[in-house]
Design a protein that fits this description.
Radius of gyration: 27 Å
Structural class: alpha/beta
């Protein structure tokens, strides 16, 4: 078994080995990755191996060619093309389909594999290897080769003909690759090329991503200059920075700009020094979707990763970092309040909390690079999921352990009390790391208004409402969704603004109840729908056919979110209460989590906010009246 792939074998040995021998090797490899091998996978392997044996039987023309089965694309949670044939000047990716038709999803899957290799595989780039691919449809009764939407498709036993066609047009292309070069190819690092990073800067720093505010409009530059200067001083150190502040202050934007600066300005000789990661999968989905330009290209995926992809570099059994293909000198961890505690991590068979796992990985990066850095944005009052309920204490307790006392910790004064009792003086307190000014709503800070709402503070809420309304932030309320639609149609025709959408608590309504309130809306996008959320923000949000839950909107923005109150959290006798009939998850502290959920929902707007509190829900009457008494205009 070769590190990074299930089987590495020459064609001449493929013809001799039995199908069961190869399948056994592949099964052991997949099991070592902590995945189960299902019957459908075994059938697919057998079908693929039989096909390859038929293809190369009766000729020794391709005997010296190396075949890779189940090669793992690094930092992709073990995405694996079925077969790769390595030639001296060509890498041929084959995806086998045990059926007789080709679907769009099949073509998208292959495009993804090809773009990963074309854009990020360092050895292929340095040696100018041609990356090609084909879908092999083994169940087809016909034999033909054709191209559809840029993808070569081989139906029936036509792979030999496909190879012969390439050889006829370019005779030198199919020469064998030497074993030493094959090993270098398998173990190559994965890095985005500099041109991709330059394109990314244009996208997320010039206002072309609508969810993220333009960097030139706040003191963000001062903050990141401070962090960059510290990173460049006394390089042989371990550092961790905690950046906190009010919701909408631009913490994500700081990390995205640091991503560019670290990968380009400081270390131009090394194109990748930093990786942006987050436990907020919808945020990662939106960033990679936009950076991909609405194509199957994966420009964002090499340096913007979900935290689960980072955790794949950790060996659960040995409780230590694996031997990595690429370690990153700097990790930029956005929304670090989403980090899981030990109890929740143990459900996935980890023996450490998520903060400690990351610190262990970066200790390994320190050995590789001679220094390492972590920059963590942290949002107080925004923990909304299982395993996040420990708060900042989770990070502080890990950093108090003897194993991590050599880490220099940077934080604002607001976090200083958490580090009392930490041995030594290996920390720096700096107020630049607290961002007190929101830039989300055109620099209109709606946080005092939201805090008054969640405290059921009528007088404080009235004062805060008057301030934000006079500054230009628009808030409306309605119990009739037809009135909401009428308003949005007028707003859209007048402003051409299509960046509005439905947001609601994941426990607020069943689909049937939601459809009763809003006939056009048939689905709530939650954490299970992360792959679709990027498209929702960029294309579909204003259709009002889907709503995003707190898990789909945390860290992201809409110009006008329509916040649906579905009955899980309501005001009774002057206090917020959890409706006992609502399907609220079994959190350790339900009251605090529900409060945080609605803090997230109410703080998504850049230009305004619409509160939809259905008339049909009599339980919400007091909630409606509270908002109305704040002075919010009703849609009639």
């Amino acid at each position: 078994m070769n590190r990074g792939c299930g089987e590495l074998i020459q064609v001449k040995d493929l013809k001799i080995k039995t199908i069961n021998q190869i399948v056994s090797t592949l099964s052991n490899f997949i099991t070592s990755l902590k995945f189960e091998v299902e019957d459908s996978q075994l059938k697919s392997w057998k079908d693929c191996i039989k096909y390859l044996k038929r293809t190369f039987w009766g000729t020794n023309e391709y005997d010296e060619i190396y075949v890779l089965f189940e090669y793992c694309l690094p930092l992709t949670s073990y995405r694996r093309p079925d077969v790769i044939l390595l030639f001296n000047n060509l890498v041929l990716v084959l995806e086998f389909k045990r059926k007789n038709v080709v679907l769009e999803i099949d073509k998208s899957q292959l495009r993804g594999y090809l773009n990963q290799l074309r854009n990020y595989h360092q050895f292929s780039h340095d040696n100018k290897l041609d990356i090609q691919g084909a879908l092999v449809v083994t169940g087809s009764s016909v034999k033909k080769i054709y191209n559809e939407n840029g993808i070569d498709i081989i139906e029936g036993d036509m792979l030999r003909s496909f190879l012969d066609r390439i050889k006829k047009s370019e005779p030198n292309k199919l020469e064998p690759m030497e074993l030493a070069e094959v090993k270098k190819w398998i173990n190559s690092e994965y890095m985005p090329l500099l041109s991709i990073m330059l394109a990314t800067r244009k996208m997320f720093l010039r206002g072309e991503i609508p969810q993220i505010k333009n960097i030139e409009q706040s003191n963000i530059q001062d903050i990141q200059n401070f962090i960059l200067e510290e990173i460049q001083t006394n390089e042989n150190k371990k550092r961790i920075f905690f950046l906190t502040g009010v919701p909408g202050a631009g913490k994500t934007l700081v990390l995205l700009n640091l991503l560019y600066e670290l990968n380009n300005s400081i270390c131009k000789s090394k194109p990748i020094e930093a990786l942006f990661t987050s436990g907020n999968a919808p945020l990662v989905s939106v960033l990679t979707y936009i950076l991909s330009g609405d194509k199957e290209t994966l420009d964002g995926e090499a340096f913007i990763k979900n935290i689960s992809d980072i955790k794949a570099n950790y060996d659960k059994a040995k409780n230590l970092p694996q031997k990595l293909k690429s370690s990153y000198q700097t990790i930029l961890f956005d929304e670090s309040q989403r980090a899981w505690d030990l109890d929740h991590m143990s459900k996935y068979h980890y023996k450490v909390s998520e903060p400690e796992l990351l610190l262990r990985l970066q200790n390994k990066a320190y050995q590789d690079h001679g220094s390492t850095n972590m920059v963590c944005s942290y949002g107080e009052g925004q923990s909304i999921y299982f395993g996040e309920e420990s708060g900042f204490e989770l990070w502080a307790e890990v950093l108090k352990k003897d194993d991590y006392l050599d880490w220099q910790v940077y934080f604002p004064k607001e976090l200083e009390h958490y580090f009392k009792g930490r041995k030594g003086n290996n920390y720096i307190v700096d107020e630049k790391l607290f961002m007190e000014k929101s830039i989300r709503g055109n620099f209109i800070d709606i946080n005092p208004f939201i805090n008054a709402i969640l405290d059921v503070d009528l007088e404080g809420g009235k004062k805060a409402f008057e301030n934000i309304i006079s500054s230009g932030f628009d808030i409306k309320i309605s119990g009739n969704f037809d009135k909401v639609k009428e308003y949005l149609e007028q707003y859209r025709s007048q402003s051409s603004d299509k960046f509005y959408g439905l947001v609601c608590s994941s426990s607020s309504s069943s689909k049937a109840t939601l459809k009763h309130f809003i006939p056009t809306c048939t689905k709530i996008l939650t954490s299970k729908d992360n792959k679709n959320i990027g498209k929702w923000y960029v294309k579909d949000c204003c259709n009002l056919t889907e709503a995003v839950s707190e898990f789909g909107c945390q860290g992201l923005e809409l110009n006008i979110p329509i916040v649906i109150f579905g009955g899980d959290y309501l005001i009774k006798e002057g206090k917020w209460l959890i409706n006992p009939t609502a399907g609220v998850k079994n959190y350790k502290n339900k009251d605090e989590i529900l409060k945080n959920i609605y803090r997230v929902l109410l703080s998504r707007g850049r230009k305004g906010l619409i509160l939809f509190i259905p008339n049909e829900c009599s339980d919400l009457n007091e909630t409606y009246e509270f908002f109305k008494n704040l002075g919010i205009e009703e849609l009639k």
